[in-house]
């Protein structure tokens, strides 16, 4: 059998749910694993409740589609009549076996004119689905009807497709799988990442490897977001273990972290569905850890997983030969090679990596760069630019998913700003318009009674900071920004922000953004004139960092307010360094404090030094006043120096000064500063204070 013999059947069904279900049942009469998905599967549940012939069908709403990751189906029907979930669509397509069926149901009526119930998830207050004409539906329908589309209408006489061969859970591993397994069993790396598109046999490889390691006497643990995600893995494991009656050693992430055991091997499947902080902790639970994920597409976090988490793994210290080894699988196993459905999904949602382009621009000629601002249906006439833009976003941002395509095309508050040259996107920013909330709604948000869709910045300022008038202003929030990796550090993103700044004049009060605070990202926004006004108190689920909110005032009233908001932020931030941010990196604290110019030169209360404080510092520096007796004053002095930009985050002794002031463990920083013991550390403090303060 050739690879092309195992391509999936792609079908379009039209009619009412009853008509569609009848045709679909006939098509799948000989199939065993059949799924129906829709925005609301209630109509199908009612139809399926009545006695009927085989095959048995199960249903799954779009919002539960992620639970099907790791599953395999003979046939799936996706009913788009009520609405479209781009991510669910892509996820489900990846679970259909070779020679199986992926069918789409559409109504007989004019689908484009029908209200899309799934659209509500993408719209900010006060928009409702009935008010918005969906450009994304137009785009999707064009893709379904294009010459490149694999989808064909079902003939009037529906004929049942032949039954699929049973899945052979004990099929021999392919050469790719065997090579990857050999790399793993060589145990030369602390951590392994198995990256591949869907359908490449990752789960089979994991199940086979786990069984062989246990048979070899290794202590092995398996982790995944849920047990539904490892159905294929477990099937291969059970087959390999045969009559040994050994259960798969599965743990939920939280349970594994709380378990005191240390393993020889830890396997984490569907790793990109698990928050990065948990993954970092899991990596320390075993001598060798393997993390399996999809590089492009269906989860929406896979590429960013590769960017951020792999960088963390590669930089870890380990006695093994390698800190990280990456294992790859390219040849599809679940379906045939060059599968038309896979190709169409990747092209439609821009999930596949762009092909290597010999003409890729490697330098920046600012005189030839074009700037474009596009909204909604304008993208429909700029297909090549849309593809380039989204492939850049997918490769650069850890949270880009197929749903973001619908958001950009259908949210009336969204505009996309692009720098491009010779048809190639160099830098892109997605901006959302927020604010202008009615006073009554603002009050209810501030009181915690309402939480309208969207409007992240004004809602946060109202609900978390109690800024009573925050809702009345207009905000342009930069939600995503990315630059071609080959052109980074050449000022393109800053140039794009300057273009947005020009467009914002007379059109908004504030430019703003909110992002996971890391040193490089914070530095970028500070360099471009944005001011921190709020930091979240809980770490982001996906990024593992604290969220930082920054603004750049545009109107005169905004400039006055920004000074007030910044002063409040500094006051609270200096206190919260003791109360809530014990794990915030020292370099990041110094960077933020050094850029927070106090309004009118007034330092926050915690950083104000009295004459008595200065006397106490002098007694410590110049005489024999014990360090422990001036701890409170030492904190005030350190914060004062930091806020006035006199501490350098690149100097080990300055980092050590801040960590001691905040009561943190100073052992690592003492070693970096090449200081042996407390006495030497205190002497370095005296030298710094003598130079900068006294």
UniProtKB/TrEMBL annotation:
Major subcellular site: cytoplasm
EC code(s) of this entry: 2.3.1.193
Keyword check for Acyltransferase: yes
Domain of life of the organism encoding this protein: Bacteria
InterPro entries membership: Acyl_CoA_acyltransferase, GNAT_dom, P-loop_NTPase, TcmA/NAT10_helicase, TmcA/NAT10/Kre33, TmcA/NAT10_N, TmcA_C_sf, tRNA_acetyltr_TmcA
Domain TcmA/NAT10 helicase as annotated: residue spans: 193-351
Transmembrane segments: none
Subcellular location: Cytoplasm
Binding residue positions for ATP: 177, 334
Alphabetical UniProt keywords: Acyltransferase, ATP-binding, Cytoplasm, Nucleotide-binding, RNA-binding, Transferase, tRNA processing, tRNA-binding
Catalytic activity, reaction form: cytidine(34) in elongator tRNA(Met) + acetyl-CoA + ATP + H2O = N(4)-acetylcytidine(34) in elongator tRNA(Met) + ADP + phosphate + CoA + H(+)
Record-listed acetyl-CoA binding positions: 481-483
Keyword RNA-binding among UniProt keywords: yes
A Pfam family hit: GNAT_acetyltr_2
N-acetyltransferase domain residues: 390-501
Family note: Belongs to the TmcA family.
Role this protein plays: Catalyzes the formation of N(4)-acetylcytidine (ac(4)C) at the wobble position of tRNA(Met), by using acetyl-CoA as an acetyl donor and ATP (or GTP).
Protein name: tRNA(Met) cytidine acetyltransferase TmcA
């Amino acid at each position: 059998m050739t690879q092309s013999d195992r391509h999936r059947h792609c079908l379009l069904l039209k009619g009412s749910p009853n008509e569609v279900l009848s045709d679909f049942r006939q098509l799948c009469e000989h199939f065993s694993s059949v799924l129906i998905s829709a925005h609301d599967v209630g109509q199908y549940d009612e139809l399926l409740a009545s006695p009927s012939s085989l095959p048995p069908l199960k249903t799954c709403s779009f919002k539960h589609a992620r639970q099907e990751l790791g599953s395999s189906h003979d046939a799936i029907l996706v009913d788009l009549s009520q609405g479209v979930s781009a991510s669910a669509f892509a996820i489900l397509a990846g679970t259909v076996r070779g020679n199986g069926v992926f069918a789409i149901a559409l109504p007989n009526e004019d689908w484009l004119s029908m209200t899309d119930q799934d659209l509500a998830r993408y719209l900010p207050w006060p928009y409702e689905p009935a008010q918005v004409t969906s450009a994304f539906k137009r785009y999707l329908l064009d893709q379904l009807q294009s010459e490149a589309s694999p989808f064909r209408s079902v003939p009037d006489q529906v004929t049942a497709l032949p039954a699929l061969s049973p899945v052979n859970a004990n099929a021999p591993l392919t050469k790719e799988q065997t090579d990857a397994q050999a790399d793993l069993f060589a145990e030369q790396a602390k951590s392994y990442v198995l990256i591949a598109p869907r359908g490449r046999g990752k789960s089979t490889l994991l199940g086979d490897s786990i069984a062989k390691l246990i048979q070899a006497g290794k202590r092995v643990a398996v982790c995944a977001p849920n047990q539904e995600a490892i159905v294929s893995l477990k099937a291969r494991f059970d087959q390999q273990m045969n009559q040994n009656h050994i259960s798969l050693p599965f743990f939920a992430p939280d349970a594994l972290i709380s378990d005191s055991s240390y393993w020889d091997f830890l396997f984490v499947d569907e790793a990109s569905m698990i928050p990065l902080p948990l993954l970092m902790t899991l990596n320390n639970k075993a001598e060798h850890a393997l993390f399996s994920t999809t590089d492009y597409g269906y989860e929406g976090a896979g590429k960013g997983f590769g960017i951020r988490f792999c960088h963390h793994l590669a930089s870890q210290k380990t006695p093994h030969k390698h800190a990280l080894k990456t294992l790859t699988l390219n040849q599809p196993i679940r379906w045939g090679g060059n599968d038309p459905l896979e190709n169409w999904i990747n092209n439609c949602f821009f999930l596949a990596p762009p092909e290597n382009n010999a003409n890729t621009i490697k330098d920046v000629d600012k005189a030839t760069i074009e700037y474009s601002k596009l909204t909604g249906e304008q993208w429909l006439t700029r297909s090549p630019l849309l593809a380039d833009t989204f492939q850049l976003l997918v490769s650069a941002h850890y949270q880009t998913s197929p749903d973001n395509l619908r958001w950009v095309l259908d949210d009336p508050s969204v505009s996309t700003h692009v720098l491009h040259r010779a048809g190639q996107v160099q830098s892109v920013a997605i901006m959302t318009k927020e604010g202008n909330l009615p006073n009554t709604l603002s009050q209810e948000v501030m009181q915690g009674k309402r939480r309208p869709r969207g409007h992240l910045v004004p809602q946060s300022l109202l609900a978390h900071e109690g800024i009573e008038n925050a809702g009345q202003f207009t905000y342009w929030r930069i939600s995503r920004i990315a630059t071609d990796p080959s052109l980074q550090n050449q000022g393109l993103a800053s140039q794009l922000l300057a273009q947005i700044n020009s467009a914002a004049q007379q059109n908004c009060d504030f430019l703003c953004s909110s992002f996971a605070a890391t040193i490089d990202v914070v530095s970028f926004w500070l360099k471009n004139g944005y001011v921190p006004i709020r930091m979240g108190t809980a770490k982001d689920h996906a990024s593992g960092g604290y969220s930082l909110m920054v603004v750049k005032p545009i109107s005169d009233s905004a400039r006055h307010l920004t000074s007030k908001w910044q002063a409040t932020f500094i006051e609270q931030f200096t206190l919260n360094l003791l109360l809530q941010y014990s794990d915030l990196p020292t370099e990041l604290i110094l960077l933020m404090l050094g850029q927070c110019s106090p309004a009118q030169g007034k330092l926050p209360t915690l950083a104000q030094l009295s004459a008595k404080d200065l006397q106490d510092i002098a007694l410590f520096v110049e005489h024999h006043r014990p360090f422990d007796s001036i701890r409170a004053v030492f904190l005030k002095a350190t914060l004062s120096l930091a806020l006035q930009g006199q501490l350098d985050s690149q100097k080990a002794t300055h980092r050590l000064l801040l960590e001691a002031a905040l009561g943190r463990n100073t052992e690592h920083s003492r070693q970096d500063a090449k200081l042996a013991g407390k006495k030497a550390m205190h002497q370095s403090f005296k030298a710094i204070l003598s130079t900068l303060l006294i």
